[in-house]
Write a structure and sequence with these properties.
- The protein has 414 residues and is an alpha/beta fold.
- The chain folds into three domains: 177 residues, FAD/NAD(P)-binding domain (3-Layer(bba) Sandwich); 125 residues, FAD/NAD(P)-binding domain, CATH 3.50.50.60; 76 residues, Enolase-like, domain 1.
- It is 22% helix and 28% strand.
- A five-stranded parallel sheet has the order 3-2-1-7-19.
- The longest helix is centred in the last third of the chain and has 16 residues.
- It starts with a strand and ends in an 18-residue tail after the last helix.
- Bound molecules: flavin-adenine dinucleotide (FAD).
- The site of flavin-adenine dinucleotide has 34 residues, from helix 1, helix 2, helix 5 and helix 7.
- Its cofactor is FAD.
- It comes from Haloquadratum walsbyi (strain DSM 16790 / HBSQ001).
- GO terms for molecular function: oxidoreductase activity.
- It holds the Pfam family Rubredoxin_C.
- This is Flavin-dependent pyridine nucleotide oxidoreductase.
Length: 414
């Protein structure tokens, strides 16, 4: 009997699942539904478009014919509003109902709004979709001053966009350094210097109490909790993601700041799977539940979910996630779970070279490399092998080291 697969979300997780399903189940009925008005594009590259460095065309990954050629039914501008796991149906905002044998939830997240006065004013931007990037580009090109809020990997993209567009900016941060959960002040100071060189001034122990607007409703000023005022006719906010789980409200599917899945991407319902940023998955390397917010991980999860939707237990997800930023003269890479663990080791090798590893129970669970990315494959291998190495941090922190310099494997866990 022909199996029907419905995928909610045409980001990289949903799209890669559709591709794998078609490859492995040539006769299956496959439907992909997305509330966006365009099919899969490269979310990583939309910042380059907003900077004015890349035209729109190369950002698209699949045009509509890609789905037609593979006999995949793609529905754009279609919001799924309800799921019935007993009847095996979903309903869209048009009132259309689709039956499924297996369902994939690949709905990602939506940027968290700053809960302050005038956070919805004109000129205040959040950043997730290509349409957001178009709006940001058109606003920043006519801006004279900017404020960025959110000291993480997306906030720094917004800061880099203002810098690339030659708009002076203030980057308001709650603590004493950028991405304080993964970097020490020593590591972050490399990033702060690079921001200053590009005309973006970090402001520490700050944030936004409210925004002021002009008579047209356009933002003019950010006022921080200390009462300090910063001119801003462009504001970029990146303070986190709310995971798109509302459609699961009437289902028994287990959620906890994301959708809980096992290592086969199966939810608490045997016919419902999830993939991408939305998942709280069982991380075999970490030995506990983890969550990734990275392109490569979402793509792999989509593909693994598809295989297990066809035949459960066929392949587990086991992956060391990577996330790089390329705004500066030096490279930057974070991998694994750099904000987790119970111990860290760090070293600075030059004004633009710094590294830090996070350990849990003596094993590497993540890290950040600035300036010199050459040890990344060794660290990732040690992480995959679950080797207990925290006692050998002197070797791990050397500018150059070989895996053979380390003591032989002490412990491997399954
Ligand atoms: C500006 C920016 C820069 C980034 N840079 C990097 C980077 O350098 N490196 C890196 O690894 N990662 C980066 N990321 C993160 C990476 O893009 C994400 O981890 C990845 O795209 C997640 O893919 P996903 O398919 O899980 O979710 P998404 O891409 O969020 O896709 C989910 C889709 O589901 C749709 N949807 C949600 N709910 C419904 C519904 N009810 N009905 C229909 N459709 C629905 C959404 O509209 C969306 O299209 C960046 C992200 C952004 C925004």
């Amino acid at each position: 009997m022909t199996q029907s697969y419905v995928i909610i979300g045409d980001g990289v997780a949903g799209s890669s699942a559709a591709e794998t399903l078609r490859g492995e189940a040539p006769d299956a009925d496959i439907t992909v539904l997305t509330d966006e008005g365009e099919s899969l594009y490269n979310r990583i590259l939309i910042k380059e478009y907003a900077k004015g460095k890349l035209p729109a065309a190369p950002i698209s990954i699949h045009d509509v014919s890609w789905y037609d050629d593979r006999d995949i039914n793609l529905e754009l501008n279609t919001l799924v509003v309800d799921i019935d796991v007993t009847e095996h149906t979903i309903e869209t905002h048009h009132g259309d109902v689709y039956d499924w044998d297996k369902l994939l939830l690949a709905t990602g997240g939506t940027p968290t709004q700053l809960p302050v006065e005038n956070a919805d004013a004109n000129g205040v931007h959040h950043f997730w979709t290509f349409q957001d990037a178009r709006d940001i580009k058109s606003n920043i090109e006519s801006a004279d001053s900017s404020v960025i809020v959110g000291a993480g990997l997306l906030g720094i993209d917004l800061a880099a966009i203002t810098a690339a567009q030659d708009v002076e900016g203030k980057y308001l941060m709650r603590g004493d350094c950028w991405w304080r959960y993964a970097l020490s002040e020593q590591g972050a100071s490399i990033i702060h210097d690079a921001l200053r060189e590009r005309g973006v001034e970090p402001v520490f122990q700050s944030g936004v109490d409210h925004f002021e607007v002009d008579e047209t409703g356009h933002v003019t000023t950010a006022v921080d909790p200390n009462g300090d005022q910063y001119d801003a006719d462009f504001v970029g906010i990146a303070i986190g993601l709310n995971f798109n789980t509302e459609i699961l409200q009437n289902t028994p599917i287990e959620c906890d700041d994301g959708i809980i899945v096992d290592e086969y991407m199966q939810t608490s319902h045997e016919d419902v799977f999830a993939a991408g940023d939305i998942t709280q998955f069982y991380d075999r390397i970490l030995g506990e539940r983890g969550q990734n917010g990275a392109w490569g991980s979402a793509k792999e999860q989509g593909s693994i979910a598809a295989k297990n939707m066809i035949e459960y237990n066929s392949e587990p997800f086991e992956w060391v996630s990577s996330y790089s930023i390329t705004h500066f003269d030096f490279p930057f890479l974070s991998f694994g779970h750099p904000t987790l663990g119970d111990d860290t080791a760090e070293a600075k090798h030059s004004d633009t070279e710094w590294r830090r590893l996070a350990f849990k129970d003596g094993r590497i669970v993540g890290g950040v490399l600035i300036g010199d990315l050459s040890p990344q494959s060794k660290y990732k291998q040690l992480m995959r092998e679950r080797r207990v190495v925290s006692g050998q941090r002197d070797i791990l922190m050397q500018e150059e080291f070989e895996l053979d310099d380390l003591e032989p494997i002490e412990t491997v866990i399954e």
